[in-house]
């Protein structure tokens, strides 16, 4: 009969390549990083677009609502098309939207 310590040490270990681990870690860090950047910049955004603070807070609310809605959807799409494709498509979408965002001329264009 095996002891509990033997069961733990004889468990199958899976080695994850550092390249995959670093890419997944980058993706995991993007969501809290994005939300914290928006929180810090909310007063600047409000001043630059000349809108009141409650209107600007919808930017953060919209971000969180989008995250809540898209997570299960992306999980299902990953089941259908493969996690690598969906993850790469999500990273490309974040890159494109992050590149376009500084050039948006008005606040209403963000929500239309």
Structure description:
With 112 residues, the protein is mainly α. 79% of the residues lie in helices and 0% in strands. It contains 5 helices and no strands. The chain has helices spanning 4-9, 18-49, 53-81, 83-100, 108-111. Helix 2 (18-49) runs antiparallel to helix 3 and helix 3 (53-81) runs antiparallel to helix 4. The longest helix is centred in the N-terminal third of the chain and has 32 residues, at 18-49. The N and C termini lie far apart (66 Å). The mean pLDDT is 80.
Summarize the structure.
The chain is an all-alpha fold and 112 residues long. The chain has five helices and no strands. The radius of gyration is 20 Å and the shape is elongated.
- Taken from the alpha-carbon principal axes, the silhouette is elongated
Structural class: mainly alpha
Number of strands: 0
Helical fraction equals: over 70%
The SSE string, one letter per element, is HHHHH
Strand content: under 5%
From the alpha carbons, calculate the radius of gyration and give it in angstroms. Answer: 20 Å
The largest β sheet comes out as:
none
Mean pLDDT: 80
- Overall tally of structural domains: 1
The total count of helices amounts to 5
In whole angstroms, how far apart are the ends? 66 Å
Which spans have pLDDT < 50 for at least 5 consecutive residues? none
């Amino acid at each position: 009969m095996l002891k509990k310590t033997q069961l733990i040490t004889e468990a199958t270990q899976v080695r994850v390549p550092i390249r995959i681990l670093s890419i997944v870690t980058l993706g995991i860090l993007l969501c809290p990083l994005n939300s914290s950047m928006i929180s810090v910049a909310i007063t600047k955004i409000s001043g630059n677009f000349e809108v009141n603070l409650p209107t600007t807070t919808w930017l953060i609310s919209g971000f969180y609502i989008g995250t809540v809605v898209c997570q299960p959807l992306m999980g299902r799409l990953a089941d259908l098309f493969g996690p690598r494709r969906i993850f790469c498509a999500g990273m490309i979408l974040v890159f494109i939207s992050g590149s376009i965002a500084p050039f948006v001329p008005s606040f209403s264009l963000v929500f239309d």
